[in-house]
Design brief:
The protein is mainly beta. Helices cover about 5% and strands about 45% of the residues. Strand 12 and strand 13 form a beta hairpin.
């Protein structure tokens, strides 16, 4: 496992143009669930995590993302070839667009920029009730709001009763509670499903 000091040195070199870079998954996890996991660094309860950014992307320039947080704070997030990027599946920075939602973890540079080791684009985790099931979409209720969960061939999977996810969604049941992890389609009530966790 890469130490915090090693990560800081590697990301600093990457941001400053150093030549020795590792593969994108060496520092950050591609798994979407990792976006919602606790940061390994100890943060006091109620304190702001300085190494985390969330919000909407309002500008982009050669791997630098301008992100307006839900509290109105403007953040700069620097991606490099050492950054793992998830947008429904592992991808590259050229798939990110202005208007996308973003979670990013990394390390703060002296100028306040977050050097990102992991970026999750449009990721959501929703606790829902399954309302209807179709061939290509699952209708979901999230606190009274209707959500359309799109089934993406080769990507979408279901985990039943805590088992590993499988591509077979045939055991989903109307009326069951579920957790859906997926990629939001900005400014819509639609989500592309990565994994739906439920009881069979």
């Amino acid at each position: 496992m890469t130490s915090t000091m090693d990560r800081r040195r590697l990301l600093t070199n990457a941001v400053l143009g150093g030549a020795a870079l590792v593969g994108a998954s060496a520092l950050g996890s591609f798994a979407p669930e990792a976006a919602f996991a606790a940061d390994p660094l100890k943060i006091e309860p109620g304190a702001i995590d300085p190494n985390f950014v969330e919000g909407r992307i309002t500008g982009m320039d050669a791997g630098l993302l301008l992100v307006t947080g839900s509290d109105g704070t403007l953040n700069r997030v620097r991606t490099t070839t050492a950054t793992s990027i998830w947008k429904l599946q592992p991808t590259t920075v050229d798939q990110i667009e202005v208007g996308d939602g973003l979670y990013a973890r990394g390390l703060r540079m002296p100028d306040g920029t977050l050097a990102a080791d992991s970026v999750w684009v449009n990721i959501v985790s929703l606790h829902v009730t399954i309302v209807a099931i179709g061939r290509s979409a699952v209708q979901l209720d999230h606190h009274g709001q209707r959500i359309v969960g799109h089934v993406v061939p080769g990507v979408s999977a279901a985990a039943y009763n805590g088992t590993p996810p499988v591509a077979d969604l045939s055991m989903l049941t109307v009326g069951k509670h579920a957790q859906v992890i997926g990629a939001w389609r900005p400014d819509t009530n639609e989500v592309d499903i990565t994994t739906i966790y439920t009881a069979a």
